[in-house]
Amino acid sequence: MNYTLLVNTMIDGLLAQIDWQPLFEDHGIPLAIMGFLVVFAALMFVRIFIGLLPRIMAVLGHYYPEQKETSLSPALHKPTADELPDEIMAVIAAVVADTIREPHRIVHTRELTPEDLSWTLEGRLQHHASHRIRPRDHR
Asked: How far is CA 31 from CA 24, 25, 35, 86, in A?
C-alpha cells in the first residue's frame, strides 16, 4: 500500500510531498501517539500552572508585600475628603470649556444629591421614551 500525498501550487508546481508510508512501518504509529501525548501533557501543564498562578501570587505576596509609592516632591497638593483630585477637576474644566464657548470661571463643584439624581433619572426616562417603536398598520 502506498500512502503518498502530493501538495501542489499553481506557480511552482510541486510544493511538498507528504509520504504516509513511514507511519505504518516499524515504530511510526507509536511515535505519533507519543507525540500527541507529549503535546497534550505540555498543554495540561500550562493549564494547571495558569490555574494555580493566583494562589502562587498570594503566597509570594506574603513574602514580598507590595510597596507603597512614595512621593518624591512633598510640595504636591493631596486632596482632602471633600475635594476632587486634580485629574477630575481638569476633566470638568475641559468639558465646561467645550460646552460654554465664552470666558468662564469654575467657582464651586459639588456631588449630586438625591434630588439632582431624580432629575437626571427623569431626563433619561424621557429620552428612552422618545425612542419607542410605533406599531405599523398591517393592511
From this structure: 10, 11, 6, 65
- pLDDT averaged per 10 residues in sequence order, the chain, 139 residues: 51 62 75 92 96 92 78 57 79 87 82 78 83 71
The model carries a pTM of: 0.34
Q: How many domains does the chain have?
A: 2
Domain housing 108 = 86-129
Verify that 12 and 58 share a domain, yes or no.
Answer: yes
* C-alpha cell, 85: 483630585
Note whether 92 and 125 are same-domain residues: yes
Same domain, yes or no, for 53 and 11? yes
CB 85 within 8 A of CB 77: no
